[in-house]
Amino acid sequence: MFSFVKHEAFRSMTAKSTVTLVFKQFPPYNFKLHPFNFSTQNLQNRESFDSARIQKSSKFLVYCNSQITKLGRNGCIKEAESVFNRMPHKSTVSWTAMLTAYAENGEINKAQEVFDKMPDRSIASYNAMITAYHRRNMVNEAFELFSSMPQRNSVSYATMITGFVRVGMFEMAEKLHWENPGMVSSNVLINGYLKARRIEDAVRIFDGMEEKGVVSWSSMIDGLCKVGKIVGARKLFDKMLERNVVTWTTMINGYMKMGNFKDGFTLFLNMRRERVEVNATTLTVLFEACGCLDRYREGIQIHGLVLSLGLDFDAYLANSMIAMYSRCHSINAAATIFDLMVQKDIVTWNSLIAGYVQSGDIEKAFLLFENMPQKDVVSWTTLISGFASKGMIDKSIGLFQMMPEKDDIAWTAVISGLVSNEEYETAFHWFIEMLQKAIKPNPLTLSCVLSAAAGVAILSQGLQFHALVTKMSMEYDLSIQNSLVSMYSKCGNVGDALRMFYYIESPNVVTYNSIITGLAQNGLGKESLKLFTKMQDEYLEPNQITFLGVLSACVHVGFVEEGWRFFNLMSSLYNIQPQVDHYACMVDLLCRAGMFNEAVELISSMPFDPHEGVWGAMLGASWTHLRLDVAELAAHNLFELEPNSATPYVILSNLHSVSGDKRKDEVIRSMKISKGIKKSPGDGDQGVEQIQDRLKWFEVPQGMWIRVWDKDKTVSSGSKCGTKTRPFQVVRRCSSYSSSCYTQNEHHRRSGATLKH
Predict the structure, then answer these.
(1) What distance in Å separates the CA atoms of residue 248 and residue 256, rounded to the nearest whole number?
(2) Alpha helix (H) ranges present in 522-611?
(3) How many C-beta atoms lie closer than 10 Å to residue 536's C-beta?
(4) Residue 9: which pLDDT band, with cuts at 50, 70 and 90?
(5) Least enclosed by CB within 10 Å: which of 103, 111, 692, 711?
(6) pLDDT higher than threshold 90 for residue 431
């Protein structure tokens, strides 16, 4: 009796040897039986023999069909062809499998050729060819074939609706849905509307469904979560009569993505109480949330659940655990899991490298990188970012230049590293070089250059990048929207920052952090605190950065009681331990209010040594309130923390002078001179006019113009539009991105509703 090839054995074979193996496992179809087999004594067994032979032939056909499908999905199109061509008998399924294999590998002409040669076509064959057309966005050809079908099923309609939705032809999709308003067609149309953020249309189709399956409910919940409609998603979830693990996981993930860990974790506990069996996806969502939101305690609990369920050998989960422990600053636990793993894939290695980078151990990260059996773009970019995070820009760039292939992610890693090290000039030049090499920037790239524009605090520079974002149709990306809010705030344009904020459909925690901090920095503390209340009303969980902005807002408006309340709220309600910057804000708040004794007590209670920001806040307030004793305390601490800073000497000297103690005034001045400390006018900062004079026009390939920094600090005399900074400059993007030219007047017209000076 012929044995089937074991799955494990098959996987270990090369694709070429697999083809040969397929045909060695079965007898040929044209073999002849010996006459002895038809002797009288054996005739009675003939019927059972033929039945067994037919059964084996059927198994062989099914097996070959499955191998064609598998080889096609793995990109082994030649091997799939070999199996198909050597089959003595081909069914309609065989032809369809070969057609699909060609389509999945982008060979639409060969797929069409197979379809034309098919002796018999089934509905599945037509559906496969329609899908092939959709893969190449050949909607007209797909609809023509769909219209010629002798018979259609629900999959046919769903496939065609998918094609229309993909290219935005929702009217045609609606017409087909009206012809076949079944559950499958409805689910496809709902998903299309949700991806296009047409929530009302998705709800309309959903409400009109006579029968709703779990997939329908889950799709709606997932779509609402993705656009930030978390309350509406929860209402749908609560209405469901039947929920499976996918539905629960979708709702939990929705909460976690919005930064609402409390409600997400509570829902997970309810899931366990209702004895719904969790799967690896559920646990991965939880691990990711624990890592991103620094929930170490809950992460350990989930790890314990993984062990009790016997899922600790799941590589996918193990990778998630490594990432979680790394983000929660428990790199030793992450390394232990890594060492215990029997099979490590490239994600495993990348996760631990990222962990070492996050913990600041760049040497171990580099050692692990060098020992990797295989490296991908993520491996390189993680280490590039790691060197940049340690201020080692030269090594970061050197590693980038060693990369065998550089994509937009690699370029973004370098630009991001430059921005984080406040090397904004160089970041602009790298961005231009990226465009010169015809590498299209991604949303994160543009977020980085917007951050650079915010760093130089020149509004006209930021406006040009905003125009570029619009022309590249990336204005709906949330990371870019958040960067725009931050950029306008740092440039002092609070009106546009608020307009951008209210323009965002689904603001997340980062969005609120940007606007809360931005308003506080511009002296609008009351408005900042109102938005914090709005953030809480939307069930978004604040983090350390949020409270830093909130406390800063309290400082600017002098809300001492509110400041204490928010400071205590961090640990009591949100389980966030205040860091030194939070203490610095509170010290600043108390000192500005003249409450120096309370400020000193707070400094004494700090679980870590105060940094220069704490003593600097006290020193500044001592000058305001003319408190010489406080100034001496703060200044003597700053002498040790910032030995080259002239500020404490100047303030202390001035206070002694005001108090009439000229002798001590002279002593302080002599100390400053003896240490060689000189006061730099403006602390070495350049004025806006000086910075603007260092800008020039830089021409990039195919007519793109954008203002960038001139490293030589000279202005190009050959610029087409002059050298003076203007509110809106022409930024024309490469023709490879768009055939249209974006003119200055058009930019004024289109952005006038939202961008005003």
Answers:
(1) 12
(2) 525-537, 544-557, 560-572, 580-592, 596-604
(3) 13
(4) very low
(5) 711
(6) yes
Query: How far is residue 385 from each of residues 267, 294, 350, 419, measured CA to CA in Å?
Result: 36, 21, 13, 11
- State the number of CA atoms in the 13 A half-sphere of 719 facing the CB: 20
> What number is the average pLDDT over the span 208-212?
86
Q: Where are the alpha helices (H) located in 573-701, listed in sequence order? A: 580-592, 596-604, 612-625, 628-641, 647-659, 662-674, 688-692
Dihedral sign for Cα 41, 46, 47, 53, please. Answer: positive
**Other Cβ atoms within 10 Å of 119 Cβ, number:** 8
What is the CA angle 325-330-335, rounded to 5?
Answer: 75
When pLDDT is averaged across residues 329-342 and rounded to a whole number, the result is: 91
Of the candidates 326, 320, 310, which has an alpha carbon nearest to the alpha carbon of residue 281?
320
Ramachandran bin of 329, using left for φ above 0, alpha for ψ from -120 to 50, beta for the remaining angles: left
Mean pLDDT of the chain: 79
**Three-point CA angle 527, 533, 539, nearest 5°:** 140
Per the listing, tokens 């590039």 go with 384
Where do runs of H (alpha helix) occur along 392-423? 393-402, 408-420
Taking the C-alpha atoms of residue 369 and residue 289, their distance in angstroms, rounded to an integer, is 26
Residue 657's pLDDT is 76
Q: Which of 163-177, 512-526, 552-566, 703-717 has the lowest mean pLDDT?
A: 703-717
Query: What pLDDT, on the 0 to 100 scale, is given for residue 676?
Result: 62
Tokens (6 digits) for 279 = 């799967």
Element (H, E) at 699: strand 695-700
Q: How many CB atoms lie within 10 A of CB 454?
A: 26
- Distance between CA atoms of 348 and 372, rounded to whole angstroms? 10
Residue whose tokens read 């809950």: 298
| Position with higher pLDDT, 231 vs 228 | 231
> Which residue from 548, 542, 544 is spatially nearest to 520, judged by alpha carbons?
548
Distance CA 328, CA 262 (A): 17
CA Rg value for the chain:
33
- Residue listed under structure tokens 């496809």: 188
How far is the C-alpha of 705 from the C-alpha of 521, rounded, in Å? 33
Q: Is 704 helix (H, G, I), strand (E, B) or coil?
A: strand
Query: Is the pLDDT confidence value at 410 over 50?
Result: yes
Instruction: Give the model's pLDDT for residue 748.
Output: 33
Tens-digit pLDDT profile for residues 240-295? 888 899 999 999 999 898 888 889 999 999 999 999 989 999 999 999 999 988 88
CB of 286 within 8 A of CB of 254?
Answer: no
* Model pTM score: 0.62
Contact 529, 498 (CB under 8 A): no
CA gap 567, 577 in Å, rounded: 10
Q: Return the closest-CA partner of residue 2 out of 57, 79, 51.
A: 57
Q: Retrieve residue 246's tokens.
A: 């996918």
- The neighbour count for residue 717, using CB atoms within 10 Å, is 7
User: DSSP letter string over 458-510?
Assistant: -HHHHHHHHHHHHHTT-TT-HHHHHHHHHHHHHTT-HHHHHHHHHH-SS--HH
CB-count exposure of residue 201 (10 Å: 0-12, 13-18, 19+): middle
Contact 692, 407 (CB under 8 A): no
Looking at per-residue confidence, does 563 or 665 come out higher? 563
Q: Does the pLDDT value for residue 538 go beyond 70?
A: yes
Query: In the structure encoding, which two tokens stand for residue 292, read together?
Result: 């991103």
Whether the predicted pLDDT of 329 surpasses 60:
yes
Position 744 scores a pLDDT of 32
What's at 709, amino acid-wise?
Answer: W
Confidence at residue 34, expressed as pLDDT on a 0 to 100 scale:
42
